[in-house]
User: Fold this.
Amino acid sequence: MSLLINFSIFPLDKGESVSQYVARAVKIIKDSGLPYKLGAMGTSIEGEWDEVMDVVTRCFEELKQDCSRVYMGITGDYRKIGPDRIVSKVESVESKL
Assistant:
């Protein structure tokens, strides 16, 4: 089984540049050991439902410590077949270009 999400999280009360807060969340994602791909507008994460949702929760808990308003966007794709979709989905599209 595989859950693949695109996830973005950042504070709305910390001014124009929020990269230091995004970096805190990305560190949690990186340290989780789950496959991930950082993008300009979000981060893709792949794993089992509970693993991925735990990472999302930890990112939120980290930012809410010192942020009064936190924006989160999550889109997901669950599929019963195995892992490595974070790579194979991109490869499938690129092979058709």
About this structure: The first strand starts at residue 2 and ends at 11.
